[in-house]
Hints:
By secondary structure, this protein is an alpha/beta fold. It folds into two domains: 32-73, no CATH class; 76-297, von Willebrand factor, type A domain (Rossmann fold). 43% of the residues lie in helices and 21% in strands. The chain contains ten helices and ten strands. The strands form three sheets. Strands 5-4-3-6-7-10 form a six-stranded mixed β-sheet, with helices on both faces. It has a two-stranded antiparallel sheet with strand order 1-2. Helix 1 (6-22) packs across helix 10. The radius of gyration is 21 Å and the shape is elongated.
Amino acid sequence: MSIEPEFLDRLAGLERALRHRTGSRRQGEQRSPNVGEGLTFSDYRRYTPGDDVRLIDWRVYARTDEHFIKQYEAERDLTVHVLLDTSASMDFGTGESNKFEFGARVGLAFAYFAAADHDSFRFATIGTDSERLDRGRSTRGELLRLVDALNGVDPDGRTDVFDALASYARTIRSRSLVVVVSDFLDDPDAVEDGLAALGDSSILLVHLVAPEERDPDVSGDTVFEDPETDATQRAYFAGSTAEGYRERLDAHLDEISDRARRLRAEHVVVDTGADFFEAFADVWTAQVAGAADDIRRV
């Protein structure tokens, strides 16, 4: 995998654009009308349109004739948990449409946005179990370390969504948004049971589908292999067989969506062949901004 550290710089630009689009405010600005109450001063940054003008330091302005914003170490009472599927089926698709690489970028973007909102993030991989990658620090330095860690991951093995999510659920200690990034090639019952194990957390499923999955570039007599079990099946892939495959894929996507809806979880299907930043902007704007604001209002 080849995610460059510059990816985080592009996320910074996207975060500013989306914050302006949604009219959102950082958590430290939302929590109290007395800005900074109960918070610890951290640093300054230049004012950008959309920032709360109450945070401008006018004494600094008098000295420099420039507007700077006071930044605070805000209370982090929302934790964003990113759970990224690393099973063998995620190693599918070419280039940036590879499901695991696209999913890793999605996970990093959620972590970046959490830190930008003064929220905590946690980052773990899931397969038959869960494994934490972060060290409990919601900083840019930690994000850079995660880039290196993810670049060294080789998707392998099978998925057991229930065991992985149930295992991770035991580590959740606070009000949380859990983002599960996966192709969800598992039994829908197991997916539903795994989501139920996450309890009262707000949940978002980012369901990855590669272009080659929707329209396999094969025809005629073909041997298909399950990357997680090495099982094979021979079929003549054309006409009604190809159409039946697409119908079953759509039915599976709908079934996962239905199971998520039962548990009041959000479910969004993402085409890994799409431009990443456009796809993530759509997910964030439509699904996450409102959900995260609802959590803060509880």
